[in-house]
Amino acid sequence: MQARITNTAVSPELQQAVNLLYKSAHSAGVPNATLELVHLRASQINGCSPCVDAGARAMRKAGETDDRLFAVAAWRETPYFTDAERSALALAEAATRLADKADAVPDDIWDAAAKHFSEAELSAIVLWIATTNFFNRINATTRQQAPQNWG
User: Fold this and answer.
1) Which of 44, 50, 59, 128 would be a feasible disulfide site paired with 25, CB 3.0-4.6 Å?
2) Any idea which fold 25-141 has?
3) What is the mean pLDDT for each group of 10 consecutive residues in the chain (151 residues)?
4) DSSP reduced 3-state for 125
5) Per-domain boundaries in the chain
6) pTM of the model
């Protein structure tokens, strides 16, 4: 599969807007590892290979363990994540799969996250989920590929 357009075709104005979203989401006090887990899980759901690849590589470079990286898709069945991370992952899944049920983000998922994160932190997590889904949709539509620079 070949990309339809290159990411370098993105306008400078759009790049500036994306940078502001990133800065906003990452300045609210949510642990970076939590935001990266949310990004990775939403990207897995959406099948965004460049985001899954870049997210996992960035997490590994930041010191994330292989146990946790390999288990993100099965986070419910593993002991590797904190309760706060689990609540953020559940929120990411629900907000990414909006069309899967009538009450896309039910109160129990929201309330679980609200036990661990302040309103400002929840806002940042929701913004980061939305931003990730934005990237995923652009990449899927334009058929962006994960780079083949393994090893």
Assistant:
1) 128
2) AhpD-like (1.20.1290)
3) 61 81 94 97 95 93 94 97 98 95 94 98 97 91 76 51
4) helix
5) 25-141
6) 0.90
